[in-house]
RNA sequence: UGGCCGGUCGCCAAGCGGUAAGGCACGGGCCUUUGGAGCCCGCAUUCGUAGGUUCGAAUCCUACCCGGCCAGCCA
C-alpha cells in the first residue's frame, strides 16, 4: 500500500540511535567518528562510512571526530594522513578541532595494559609466532592454553616493562589477554594486545617499540573520546565481544559498536590492499588515476563531492552483503552535473566540413547558451567560419532510416549556428571520408527557420581556424567483469583487468574558451558527456578526462539496426 | 563438519502480524536547437525452500538450502 504521507526512511542505525536518544542513553548525546588507518588512500567505500558517520552527527545534532587509527607504524605514513585529511574535507565534512590520533593515546593504552596484567587479565606469552598459531586451534577444534598463561603478575609486569624497554627482539614476546582458549569465537582465544615492533612511528618516532593491537586499542580510542556509537563494517562483528570485554574489564566509558555492510561496486575492486597492487604493479598511473575508485581518482576524473554524497545516501545502509552497480554512481554524477556544468562544444573525432557558399575570411560571433538548465549561467560568443569540424560519427554515407544526422543531400542543424546540407563527399585514396562540402542557409542563423522545415538532427561543431587541439582521455571499466574477485582457477583479480580501460584521443578540437579554464573544472561537451580539465594540461597542451558520458539513445538504436 | 551475520524485482532497498514503497537498470510513448535533460506509462499475485502457528505471515516458530566473515604479533 502506498503511504500517503512521506515519512523519511531510516536505516537500522538511525533506528538504534533514535531509541537511544528516546531512552536518554548517554544523556541523549550522539558522537561518532571516522577512524581510518593512514596506510592508503581513501576510496568510495570509505566515503560511505564518512557520509554515514558525519551524516549521523549532523542529523542528530551530534559530533563526529576524524581519528587516525595509527597503531601499526610498519604500514603507515604521513603521505596518507595528508591525503585522507584532504579527501574528507573535499567531500564536505568538518571535524572542527576534533582531529585525533590513536598514537596520542599510547601512554594511556600502556597503563590500561598494566592494569589488565595486575588484574590477572593479561599475560606475557613467549611462544613463537608459529607456536601461537598451533596453540590457537582451528575453526572446529578448541585451542590449547599457552604454557606461559599462568605466569605471576610480578613476572608479567617485569617482562612487559622489559618489552617496552626494548630488551627483546620482535616476535619473542607478546602481551595477550587471558580469555578463553576454547571459545568458538577465535578472537577470544587469548588475543594479542601488545607486540614488539622496532619501527619508527610517523608521529611518535622511536618513543615506543611496543604497539597495541587494533582490538585492544580501538575501544579505548572510542572510550577516551566519549564516542556513543562506534560504527564499523561487518567483518568486525566477531570482534564485538572482544571490544566489549576490554572496556568492561577496565570499567571505562563503553561506546556501542554497530556494524554495517561495506560498499562494493561492480567492475572495480575496493580493498586498499588490492588498490595498492594496482598502483605498485603499474596497472594504473597512481592513487589518483581517474580509473581508480579512490576519492582522489574520482575527483581527478571529474566527480563532484555532491554526487558522491548523493550516491552514499541512496545506496542505503544495511547488514547485508551487496555489490552496487557502478551505473548508479554514474547516474548520480550526471544528475548533479546536468544542473551545473557549463556546456561547451568539442569534437573528439574531427571531420572537416567546408561550407562552400559561406564567404571566405568571414568570422561571425554567434550566441551560445551556457546551460539550458540554468538561465543564470548566461550565454557566450562562439566563432563560426567557412571551415569547421564536426564529429565523424555525425556523418554516414549510407545511413539507416533511423539516422537523422548528416548524409549526402540531407540537412542538419549546427547547434547555435545554421542549417547545412551535404552536397559532396571527398575521400582519400583508400576510400575514407576526409572532407564534406556543404552549403548553408543564411536564413537559419542561430539554428532556426520560420518555414516549418523539420530538421531533426543537430550536430556540435567547432570553427577550424579557432579551435584548440586537445588530448582527451576516455575511461572504461578497470575490469572486464562485474565482480573481479571471481577469477579463473589459480588466478587472482588481476586476471580480470581490462587492458583497454584507458583510451587516449589525440588531435581533438575544442572551443578556444577552454584554454583559460582552471584545472579540475568540469564541462559538458555537448552531446557527449562530462569532461574535467586534467592537471596534466599545460599552456600549449590541453588534456581532458571523460568523467561520464551522456546517456546515448542512438547507441541503443544503432544496435537494433 | 565450529561460531557470528545475512537472504524482498537484474542491482540497491523500504517493510517490524493486516494483505509487496522508492531509486537505478530495462522496455514503450511524449517533448526537444544536446538522439542530453524533462514528462508519462510498464516492470515481484510474491518475499531462499519446505512445513507449522494464526481469521490473516515477507513479518512469529521449526528444519533445510544458499551467501558473507573469522584460524595476522593487519586494521
Strand runs, count? 25
Largest sheet: 7 strands, mixed
Mean pLDDT: 96
List the uncertain runs: 1-6
Trace the largest sheet across and list its strands.
Answer: 10-23-24-25-21-22-11
CATH superfamily membership of the largest domain, which one?
HUPs
Annotation field: number of helices: 13
User: Based on helices, strands and strand pairing, what is the structural class?
Assistant: alpha/beta
Strand residues, percent: 15-25%
CATH architecture of the largest domain: 3-Layer(aba) Sandwich
Helix residue percentage: 25-40%
**Globular, elongated, flat, extended or rod-shaped: what is the shape?**
elongated
Q: Tell me the Rg in angstroms.
A: 31 Å
The CATH class of the largest domain, by name, is Alpha Beta
Q: What does this 3D model show about the protein?
A:
The protein has helices spanning 12-22, 44-59, 78-91, 106-118, 129-136, 153-164, 214-224, 240-250, 272-280, 295-301, 305-314, 326-340, 553-559; strands at residues 31-34, 63-68, 99-101, 122-125, 174-177, 192-196, 210-212, 229-233, 256-260, 342-344, 346-347, 350-355, 364-369, 379-384, 387-391, 411-414, 419-427, 433-440, 458-459, 461-463, 468-475, 502-510, 522-525, 529-533, 542-549. It is built from 13 helices and 25 strands. The protein has a 7-stranded mixed beta sheet with strand order 10-23-24-25-21-22-11, with helices on one face. Strands 19-16-17-18-12-15-20 form a 7-stranded mixed beta sheet, with no helix packed on it. The protein has a 4-stranded antiparallel beta sheet with strand order 4-5-6-7. β17 (419-427) and β18 (433-440) form a beta hairpin. The chain is α/β, with parallel strands linked by helices and 561 residues long. Helix content is 26%, strand content 23%. Mean pLDDT is 96; it is low at 1-6. The longest helix is centred in the first third of the chain and has 16 residues, at 44-59. α2 packs across α11. The protein has 3 domains: 12-260, HUPs (Rossmann fold, 3-Layer(aba) Sandwich), CATH 3.40.50.620; 272-342 and 470-560, Beta Barrel (Ribosomal Protein L25, Chain P), CATH 2.40.240; 346-460, Ribosomal Protein L25, Chain P (Beta Barrel).
Amino acid at each position: 500500500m502506498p503511504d500517503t504521507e512521506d515519512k523519511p526512511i531510516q536505516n537500522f542505525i538511525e533506528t538504534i540511535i533514535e531509541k537511544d536518544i528516546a531512552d536518554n542513553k548517554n544523556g541523549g548525546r550522539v558522537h561518532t567518528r571516522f577512524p581510518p588507518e593512514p596506510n592508503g588512500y581513501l576510496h568510495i567505500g570509505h566515503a560511505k562510512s564518512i557520509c554515514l558517520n558525519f551524516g549521523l552527527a549532523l542529523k542528530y545534532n551530534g559530533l563526529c571526530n576524524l581519528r587516525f587509527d595509527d597503531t601499526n607504524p610498519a604500514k603507515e605514513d604521513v603521505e596518507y594522513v595528508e591525503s585522507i585529511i584532504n579527501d574528507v574535507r573535499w567531500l564536505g565534512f568538518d571535524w572542527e578541532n576534533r582531529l585525533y590520533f590513536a598514537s596520542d593515546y599510547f601512554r594511556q593504552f600502556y597503563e590500561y595494559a598494566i592494569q589488565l596484567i595486575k588484574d590477572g587479565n593479561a599475560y606475557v606469552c613467549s611462544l613463537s609466532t608459529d607456536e601461537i598459531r598451533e596453540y590457537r586451534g582451528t575453526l572446529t577444534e578448541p585451542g590449547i592454553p599457552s604454557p606461559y598463561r599462568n605466569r605471576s603478575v610480578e613476572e608479567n609486569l617485569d617482562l612487559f616493562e622489559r618489552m617496552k624497554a626494548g630488551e627483546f627482539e620482535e616476535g619473542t614476546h607478546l602481551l595477550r589477554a587471558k580469555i578463553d582458549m576454547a571459545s568458538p569465537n577465535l578472537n577470544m582465544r587469548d588475543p594479542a594486545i601488545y607486540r614488539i615492533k622496532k619501527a619508527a612511528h610517523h608521529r611518535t618516532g622511536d618513543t615506543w617499540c611496543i604497539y597495541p593491537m587494533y582490538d585492544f586499542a580501538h575501544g579505548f580510542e572510542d572510550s577516551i573520546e566519549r564516542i556513543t556509537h562506534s560504527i564499523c563494517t561487518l567483518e568486525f562483528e566477531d570482534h564485538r565481544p572482544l571490544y566489549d570485554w576490554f572496556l568492561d574489564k577496565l570499567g571505562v566509558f563503553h561506546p556501542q559498536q554497530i556494524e554495517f555492510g561495506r560498499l562494493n561496486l561492480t567492475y572495480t575492486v575496493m580493498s586498499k590492499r588490492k588498490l595498492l597492487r594496482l598502483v605498485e604493479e603499474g596497472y594504473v598511473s597512481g592513487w589518483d588515476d581517474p580509473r581508480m575508485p579512490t576519492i582522489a581518482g574520482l575527483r581527478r576524473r571529474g566527480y563532484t563531492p555532491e554526487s558522491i554524497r548523493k550516491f552514499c545516501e541512496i545506496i542505503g545502509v544495511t547488514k547485508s552483503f551487496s555489490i552496487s552497480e557502478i551505473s548508479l554512481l554514474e547516474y548520480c554524477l550526471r544528475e548533479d552535473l546536468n544542473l551545473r556544468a557549463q556546456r561547451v562544444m568539442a569534437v573528439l573525432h574531427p571531420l572537416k566540413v567546408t561550407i562552400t557558399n559561406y564567404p571566405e575570411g568571414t568570422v561571425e560571433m554567434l550566441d551560445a547558451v551556457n546551460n539550458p538548465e540554468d538561465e543564470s549561467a548566461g550565454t557566450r560568443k562562439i566563432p563560426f567560419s567557412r571551415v569547421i569540424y564536426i564529429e565523424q560519427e555525425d556523418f554516414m554515407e549510407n545511413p539507416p532510416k533511423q539516422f537523422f544526422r548528416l548524409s549526402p543531400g540531407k540537412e542538419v542543424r549546427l547547434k547555435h549556428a545554421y542549417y547545412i546540407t551535404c552536397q559532396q563527399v571527398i575521400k582519400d585514396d583508400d576510400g575514407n571520408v576526409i572532407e564534406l562540402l556543404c552549403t548553408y542557409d543564411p536564413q537559419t542563423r542561430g539554428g532556426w527557420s520560420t518555414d516549418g522545415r523539420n530538421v531533426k538532427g543537430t550536430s556540435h561543431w567547432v570553427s577550424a581556424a579557432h579551435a584548440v587541439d586537445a588530448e582527451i582521455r576516455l575511461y572504461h571499466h578497470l575490469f572486464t567483469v562485474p565482480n573481479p574477485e571471481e577469477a579463473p582457477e589459480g588466478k587472482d583479480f588481476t586476471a580480470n583487468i581490462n587492458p583497454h580501460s584507458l583510451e587516449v584521443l589525440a588531435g581533438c578540437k575544442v572551443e578556444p574558451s577552454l584554454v583559460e579554464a582552471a584545472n579540475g573544472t568540469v564541462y559538458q561537451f555537448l552531446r557527449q558527456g562530462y569532461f574535467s580539465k586534467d592537471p596534466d594540461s599545460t599552456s600549449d597542451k590541453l588534456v581532458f578526462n571523460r568523467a561520464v558520458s551522456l546517456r546515448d539513445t542512438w547507441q541503443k538504436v544503432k544496435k537494433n539496426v
